[in-house]
Amino acid sequence: MFGRILKIDLTSGSITREQAPEQWTRDFIGGSGLAARLLWEVLDPAGDPRDPSAPLLFATGPLTGTGGPTTGRFTICGRSPYTGLWGEANIGGFVGPELRLAGVDILWISGRAAEPVYIWIHNEQVEIRSAAGLWGQTDIYQTQSAIREQTGEAQAKVACIGLAGENGVPYAAILSDHGRAAGRAGMGALMGSKNLKAVAVRGTGKIPLGDEAVYKKLRVESNKALLEANLTAVMKATGTAGAADYLQILGDMPQKYWTAATFENAGNIGGAAMAETILVGTAACQGCVISCGRVVNIKEGPYATSGEAKGPEYETLCSFGSQLLVDDMAQITALGDKCDRLGMDTISAGNTIALAYLLFDRGIISAADTGGLRLAWGDASPCFTLLEQTARREGFGALLAEGAQALAEHFGAPELAVTVNRLEVPMHDPRAHTGQAISYAVSPRGACHNQSDFFMVEMGNSMDEIGVPMTERLVDSGKAGAVARHQHFRTAQNSLTMCFFASVSAAEVARLLSAVSQREISVEEMLLAGERAWNLKRLYNGRLGLSAANDKLPKLLLEPLEEGGQMGHVPDMNTLMSEYYAASGWDPVSGMPTAEKRRALGLEFTL
Amino acid sequence: MTIPFPSDAWIKAMMADLNASEAYLAAAANWEGSFDFIIQVGGKTTTLYMDLWHGKCREAYEVPEGAEHKADFRLSGPVAVWQKVMTKKLDPMQAMMTGQLKLTGNMAMVMKNVRAAKELVESCTRIPTEFPA
């Protein structure tokens, strides 16, 4: 039965196992949904997110590692040291499946080790080992190699933090494998606060498939259909940045820190351009037929790679490319790689640096503030120094390390920070897709496209069977209900856990879940579980002081641009949000689910 | 006078239109590749071929049934979807993303030439077309 919890207290060194209540796994499935239910019980609103008692959860779902379509993922959850609110970051690669092979569905880490440590899980055997030789000396790839060497297990899968996590940079990431990242909301900082360098896992057991024969047949059919989908072909050939040229036309791809809609050389940094120049292969998460990861080889020039290296995904291409008006793919690749090695979220790090460029451009800061660095659009060369300084909290980097909102506030320009609840906005401009404006405003972890990528719906990726039709992207009224349903489905997927890139219908997902759970689960029941978890995360944030007043976009995103595919348009937040609260059963003043709504969802324990 | 779609006369009319279009010439300046547009009408399938090369159309014709034939790209779907795209009721990229039109070929090339695809649609709208009932 899904829900096997391994609990490790790093203060006392205690290691225990327990089973999640069956009703909770039914109501919240797994992944970030089940994590929300588990963490609800121990949330201390008055406490500091970095207090040793605050848990960090590695949460898999019942589909993780089962070979179903795009099910190699898992989610890392806790209270965010960056935003102070709910934190979750999902990650691909191989660690999640390996945890399940070792008999662990949820890894619960609390406490703080007296000295740096890493956790070594080898099937039933669990050890807390010294990380003295790893702390402060290695990048994330070296850390993985060193731990494999120390454990003597070449097949061990390792999730670790870099220098940024060790130094408490609040948007530090946790990385694994070939540069897969749980990037957002500072889960790496939470891990670092526990003196925990890494979690290494080797499992040789079997992942329960429920009704095995049925599940195996279904997964073959699903993967075959997924392999034949147009979107899969695009992702495979061009990666997550494949649609960059199209997004540019629509005005979705941000430029010049959200102040321009077009960029002459944007075509040089899309996934298609990468495929034609430096791409030499692809990389996949466990069992995935899409293989969206990029493998590149830059043979010459100042950013030549020593053989094959990870190529940047869309968010990184924008963060260090279009947002800085940089069109040098090799340089962007090198910056993405540096960010990974230091263990930082490329969205937050890139956005914060791009804001510094804007402040410099507007004369709000000068070289006197940046330690002599001149930050000019089109020149990303200072970013290497800035990233290093940020991870080490040195020089100007000490300010960058606090993120965009803090940086803007420090220099008296808070209105220039493009954040929602202190988290930097990812690289899809809500002025080009107004449904995305709602997604950003109410995402439980701050601005996020991984709670609902509604821009994709407004580009044509509708889900009519669950009441999410394609909506007109520049129209405000009439779409809030569809956004809410989309969020519920995506939350269910984050509970399963399953990548959003899978073009798999909700009915097919419900069949897979039914087979693995060995009971009939309808689409409606699955969506209800998603809605329940979505509302619980909202209520978790409510306990931390969040209200409807937080549901807003930053000022820069409410200023129209004079060109491009979103020319002259800004989302009407009053219309969008009032319709959203009504559609969601949320009180428009408190911003919280009404008592009636909570009862309808079985969330009476929150009343 | 309208031209029936899909037909040899129709694809030749589009070839003439494209070759007169400055906008297409600019948008497709880097395009190299031939297309099979495969249209399903009832139980019958018609293939219209276009050889597109650096903003010009070098050749276009209806592929005779059973003829041995190979194009660099194949875009296929029911005539009702084609009609939506050709009358701008459905964006060609959206038609592709949603799988309403199935595309095979070099995806990187396609994703890099979205503007050219849009100009192809513009050309379609300029041809007086008679769609099957």
Notes on the structure:
The complex is a heterodimer of chains A (607) and B (133). Chain A is α+β, with helices and mostly antiparallel strands and 607 residues long. Chain A has 3 domains: 4-202, Aldehyde ferredoxin oxidoreductase, N-terminal domain (Aldehyde Ferredoxin Oxidoreductase,  A, domain 1), CATH 3.60.9; 238-397, Orthogonal Bundle (Aldehyde Ferredoxin Oxidoreductase Protein, subunit A, domain 2); 434-606, Aldehyde Ferredoxin Oxidoreductase Protein, subunit A, domain 3, CATH 1.10.599.10. Chain A is 37% helix and 13% strand. In chain A, the strands form 4 sheets. A 6-stranded mixed beta sheet of chain A has the order 2-1-6-3-4-5. A 6-stranded mixed beta sheet of chain A has the order 8-7-12-9-10-11. A 3-stranded antiparallel beta sheet of chain A has the order 13-14-15. Chain B has 133 residues and is α/β, with parallel strands linked by helices. Chain B has one domain (3-125): Nonspecific Lipid-transfer Protein, Chain A (2-Layer Sandwich). In chain B, 38% of the residues lie in helices and 30% in strands. Chain B contains 6 helices and 7 strands, in the order βααββββααβααβ. In chain B, strands 4-3-2-5-6 form a 5-stranded mixed beta sheet. Chain B has a two-stranded parallel sheet with strand order 1-7. In chain B, a hairpin with a 2-residue loop joins β2 (32-41) and β3. The longest helix of chain B is centred in the last third of the chain and has 13 residues, at 114-126. Chain B starts with a strand and ends with a strand. The chains are: A alpha+beta (607), B alpha/beta (133). Chain A binds chain B through residues 229-231, 233-234, 236-238, 242-246, 249, 267, 270-273, 275-276, 459-462, 470, 503, and chain B through 91, 93-99, 102-104, 106-115, 118.
